[in-house]
Amino acid sequence: xxxxxxxxxxxxxxxxxxxxxxxxxxxxxxxxxxxxxxxxxxxxxxxxxxxxxxxxx
Length: 57
Prior knowledge:
Layout: H1 2-7, H2 13-26, H3 31-43, H4 45-52
Helix pairs in contact: 3-4
C-alpha cells in the first residue's frame, strides 16, 4: 500500500494519522510505524512536513 502511494505521489493521510495517534497513545514502540514514517519522510517530504510538527518525542 505504501509503495503504491509513494510511487504515484499521493500519500494516504489516514495512514500517517493512524500512526501518529498510536504514537501519542502507546509511544513509539512499533518499529514498523517508525520505518513507514522514515520512508514517507524520504520519498514524500513535502507531504510529511504537515505531520512532522505533530511528532514530539
